[in-house]
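The records we work with from here on pair a chain with its fold. Taken together, the tokens spell out the fold as the letters spell out the chain. The record below shows the convention in full.
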Amino acid sequence: MRACDVRGGFGFVVAAALGLAFAGLMPQPAAAQPYPSRTITAVVPLSAGNAIDVTARIVLEQMSRQMGQPIVVENRVGAGGTVGSNAVAKAAPDGYTLLVHSSSFTAAAAVYSSLPYDTLKDFAPVARLGLQPTILVTAPTKEFKTAADLINAAKERPGQLNYASAGVGSASHFAVERFRLAAGFQGQHVPFRGPNEAMSDVMAGRVDFYFLPLAPAMPLLQDKRLVGLAVSTPKRLPALPDVPTMTELGLGDAAYPFWTGIFLPRQTPREIVDRLQNEALKAVADPGVQERF
């Protein structure tokens, strides 16, 4: 629920006077406990195991150690991440409910005609946890050995090739649309409930292509369960030296940055926002976290 404003009415003067008179006789409330004093819930609006979820768990685990309180990840899936975002927007602004989301968070208003929250007005940005390149992937059983093969096939068969996403309005959806528009072809969008379901259908060859962040893509590429056709970075990746960039393909406008960040409800006190920001940046810089990344 959205945190409510305290709306006290004006009492009678005599009541106020009596309240002051008896104030000294009543037990005084305990001093506010320092933040955090209990478990923090981190909402990830996509299914477990995706790039956002993995990034969140790595960083939040370190933040939990630093802050001395548990941080529990809760996956609230649905509507391209808007279900989880709405839950955080309506949560009490006390620092105990936070959102870990991706690039698609800022574009939701362009996808959905009506959102139950305002992206700009209902959230306080805390920290960016990372920026990942995305990889254009397909199944090894497909006829596409290069990105040019895929583009040519899509142009020869307008609207017949299909492409996966982790849901309408997800980062993978925007990544593939940027690529499709830059390359100038039509296709059939197949939205899935989450990235794991999308990857499964791409690997099985039921869907022609997909855009996947680097972290979950690497083991599948190494095991030859997927083929990488292009990367979204300006330069080739050391981990994938044989995979060309979008720029090399003449598609400089195709790259869609995939970032992960933390947000809080807008009315969260500034000192809590600052505390979480400092802890997040400290966690991201931790050598153990860097090694896991």
